[in-house]
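debug: dumping io for the single-chain case to check the tokenizer round-trip. Nothing else runs in this session.
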Amino acid sequence: MLDHEQLISGSSHLELRIATSSSTSTSGHILILMHGLPRTMGMGRQAAGLLPELAEHLANESGWTVATGTLSGVGGSTGTFSATQWKQDITTVIERIAKEKQRISLAGFGFGGALALNTAANDERIQGVATFAAPAHLPQWSGTPEEFHRGIKLAGVVSDAVALQSVNELYDDVMSIDPLGSAAKIPPRRLLIGHGSDDIEVPAQDARDLVDAAQQHAELRIIQGAGHQLRADPRMVATLLGWLDRH
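debug: decoded output
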């Protein structure tokens, strides 16, 4: 079963979908799926497109409650991207679904994985994090401040109502996410780092660097032959389901 809601996060209205199992007994665990940050022409509308279907599949197979929020500027959510705004958006989603004594985990793709690490590093309610194709080195991933700013505008994760930050403000805000520093703060909580061996957008070495930052207290899964887009890869789904089952 997939429920649809809208949340208010600052000046943004966010699309939230919450999947629960229609057949498997519920486990009392919650997983929040986090999409990545698009930077190619027009992709802002599509960045979260596959996650509701994935959430429903994971919920039915695992018995977990699986939520996915479409963050500011993406899909049907209003607002404009900034790292600060997306951090507020994730907090808003967590506050909506968090219940006493329930265990919350995050699973993020691309920049969403880096944001998941940062969120967990600063929120002890998060009991586990799984990342897929997450960048460990944001300066290399983003390019120059000018290139990054241009990519955000091309992707369309902006609105007329909320101005995009200036070139340097936007860049510095994203750099504050600090995936390596965040990963170091996750253990002894559970951490899964997944990556495609043939990812040309974020090198697979980034996954190994995140594991090193966590002082090897993480599961590393390199998916052979896979590229950057892992959301629909059945091997990623199997890896994530196995991680959920081991909780």
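debug: round-trip ok. Strands lie at 2-9, 12-19, 29-34, 65-70, 103-109, 126-132, 190-196, 219-223.
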